[in-house]
Design brief:
The complex is a heterodimer. By secondary structure, chain A is α/β, with parallel strands linked by helices. Chain A is built from 13 helices and 17 strands. Chain A has 4 domains: 6-133, Rossmann fold (3-Layer(aba) Sandwich), CATH 3.40.50; 159-259, Beta-Lactamase, CATH 3.30.450.20; 260-338, Helix Hairpins (Orthogonal Bundle), CATH 1.10.287; 340-500, Heat Shock Protein 90 (2-Layer Sandwich). Chain B is of the alpha/beta class. Chain B has one domain (4-125): Rossmann fold (3-Layer(aba) Sandwich), CATH 3.40.50.2300. A 5-stranded parallel beta sheet of chain B has the order 2-1-3-4-5, sandwiched between helices. In chain B, helix 1 links the parallel strand 1 and strand 2. In chain B, helix 2 packs parallel to helix 3. Classes of the chains: A alpha/beta, B alpha/beta. The interface between A and B is medium-sized, with 27 and 24 residues.
């Protein structure tokens, strides 16, 4: 078998052939023999795969050992030939070695001498085979890599999205036709050039440079919208992420570009449609409410107590409808990714303080104590200011709404494990266990005798949740029926504080 | 003499309701049911103040406002815009088309509480 190499002994003397066979077989090797050069070559041809070492007598009648050696070399130059020099002449041994013999053994020799030299040759043969195997393996890997490379290049080139890869020095090392088309430049003015020389959109170059400088492992990817063209009529969405090595060091960045001009166009049409529908829905409700207001203000004559009660209720319903329309608009804007696209480094403390100040009147009207406390130093977060105001207005006004007179609402801001944490707590009516999992659902409202009098659209918390999600944050709630409610919101810290 | 206020709105129900509020506060009220009629009445009725709706089919409030402010005889009349604009989307659309949100002297969301409306009108009239 290939693992157990054969030894071929070519010698005209029977006694030599038998002697060698006996010695080597005893050590577990299989031995073939041939009585002359011609037969020897035949054996080699027949067992080429299995022959590891050839012991070759130089002095033979007919074909001489040298001739056999020459032929062996042409059959397979890797075959190891040990020449047996009968009447030891150094010259013939040297000549054989020059012709490519691996070693020589002078006659007469002891069994140990033979064993040592054969063993050495076989070891050499094994190494040779291993080297050959490794070489082939490497060749195949290189070929695989080349195939893989060409495959990836083809994929990247065929992609509809633009790809722009920079190395650690901000030099463009890979790009595709879609990228040059979207960035309205040629591949040659991108490839091999540093960012500052590519005439890229300045916001995009800034983002790529920031991603290259990002040290914090928490910095993952940045998504931004770019407008290009003479009248800014083309829109791209760019996703940029740093590439890190196994030590977590940034060694480059990848940017994927999407052409969103047609989406923008649709979006504009949708916005106009929504604006129109809003007007059509709002105008009649507003008119009805205006009429109710006039009657309730007794500008159309006296109103009985019962009528006033009914009209007040009707007015609350129209107000509810108007709020519903407003909330629906907010929600459709968030779902379209509109509300949260102006993310900036933001001090949540300021935002909450502002909201608390605005809500104070509402709280005082219900004789509710409203407090805000904050840790002395709280990290910035990366967020959209309006959305954050929306979240806290919603949470705090909910807390006030669902807390009976004389209660307490308090807001706390701090940090916890890489996150900025805000809690809004109240001493209100609390939530039933079965309601908790559903309160973030759209249009879900807790229905009890206590909440029936409270006007709401059921969209508030689902809007809050969408905003929190869009900021990679989380929101949770703890509550006990009759024992108050605490909402906890977590946002990741701003990853690159130096920007602020 | 009572101050005269011109209400311009394409919704007759709303015009009626606002008229009742203003009349109860002893204002003289003239009404126009569209942007073009509003412009005409601004010239003929000689109002002290105009309450102007934004979204009207023939000529919207921004366009009316622009023309009024461009007319030297009428540019001094304070304008209170009555908006049903609830979202940035709508604001943006009208800013794009009208581009002069700021040319009105004040604006107020409808529906409006009578005391708020009256307070704003008084503020504009005494300015």
């Amino acid at each position: 078998m290939p693992d157990q190499p054969n030894i071929l002994v070519i010698d005209d003397e029977q006694i030599m052939r038998d002697g060698c066979s006996r010695i080597l077989s005893k050590d577990g090797w299989s031995v073939l023999t041939a009585e002359n050069g011609k037969k020897g070559l035949e054996e080699i041809q027949n067992h080429l795969e299995n022959i590891g070492v050839i012991l070759l007598d130089l002095m033979m009648p007919g074909m001489s050992g040298m001739e056999v050696l020459d032929q062996v070399r042409t059959i397979d130059p890797n075959l190891l030939v040990i020449v047996i020099t009968g009447y030891a002449t150094v010259e013939s041994a040297v000549e054989a070695m020059k012709k490519g013999a691996y070693d020589f053994i002078p006659k007469p020799f002891t069994p140990d001498q033979l064993r040592i030299i054969v063993k050495r040759a076989l070891e050499r043969r094994a190494l040779q085979k291993e080297a050959e195997f490794l070489r082939k393996e490497r060749e195949r890997s290189l070929r695989d890599i080349a195939t893989e490379k060409s495959k990836i290049k083809t994929i990247i080139n065929c992609m509809g999205d633009g790809v722009l890869v920079c190395d650690g020095d901000g030099c463009v090392v890979l790009t595709n036709p879609a990228a040059s088309r979207m960035l309205m430049t040629s591949e040659s003015s991108l490839l091999g050039n540093s960012l500052s020389h590519c005439h890229l959109n300045s916001e995009l170059s800034k983002t790529i440079e920031e991603s290259l400088q990002a040290k914090d492992i928490g910095y993952t990817s940045v998504s931004q919208e770019l407008s290009l063209g003479e009248s800014q009529q083309f829109f791209l969405r760019a996703h940029t992420a740093p590439v890190r090595n196994d030590l977590g060091e940034t060694i480059g960045s990848v940017t994927v570009l999407q052409d969103i001009s047609h989406l923008k166009e649709l979006d504009k049409m949708k916005s106009e449609f929504i604006a129109m529908v809003t007007h059509e829905l709002r105008a009649p409700i507003a008119a009805v409410e205006q009429q109710l207001t006039v009657i309730l203000n007794k500008m159309a004559g006296e109103v009985t107590e019962k009528q006033e009660q009914l009209l007040n209720r009707a007015k609350e319903r129209t107000k509810g409808l108007l709020n519903l329309i407003k909330d629906l608009l907010d929600l459709s804007k968030i779902e379209a990714g509109k509300m949260v696209q102006y993310k900036e480094p933001l001090a949540l403390q300021e935002v909450i303080q502002r909201v608390v100040d605005l809500m104070r009147v509402e709280a005082e009207n219900k004789k509710i104590e409203l407090q805000f406390s904050s840790s002395p130093k709280v990290s910035l977060i990366h967020a959209d200011r309006n959305s954050m105001e929306g979240i806290f207005t919603n949470l705090i006004s909910n807390a006030i709404k669902y807390t009976p007179e004389g209660g307490k609402v308090w807001v706390n801001l701090g940090e916890e494990g890489g996150f900025v944490k805000a809690t809004v707590s109240d001493t209100g009516i609390g939530l039933k266990k079965e309601d908790i999992p559903r309160i973030f659902d759209k249009f879900y409202r807790v229905k009890t005798t206590e909440t029936r009098q409270i006007i709401g659209t059921g969209l508030g918390l689902s809007i809050v949740k969408s905003i929190v999600d869009a900021h990679l944050g989380s929101i949770s709630v703890e509550s006990e029926e009759g024992g108050g409610t605490t909402f906890t919101v977590l946002f990741p810290r701003e990853s690159n504080p130096s920007i602020s | 003499m009572a101050k005269k206020i011109l209400i311009v709105d394409d919704d007759p129900d709303l015009v009626e309701a606002v008229t009742m509020i203003l009349e109860s506060k002893r204002y003289d009220v003239a009404a126009a049911y569209g942007g073009i009629e509003g412009l005409q009445k601004a010239k003929t009725e000689n109002p002290d103040l105009i309450v102007l709706d934004v979204m009207m089919p023939d000529k919207d409030g921004y366009a009316v406002c622009k023309e009024l402010k461009a007319d030297p005889n009428l540019s001094k009349i304070p304008i209170l815009l009555l908006t049903a604009v609830v979202s940035k989307i709508a604001t943006t659309r009208y800013t794009q088309q009208g581009g002069l949100e700021t040319e009105a002297d004040d604006y107020i969301d409808k529906p409006v509480e009578p005391e708020v409306l009256v307070k704003r009108i008084e503020a504009l009239l005494t300015k």
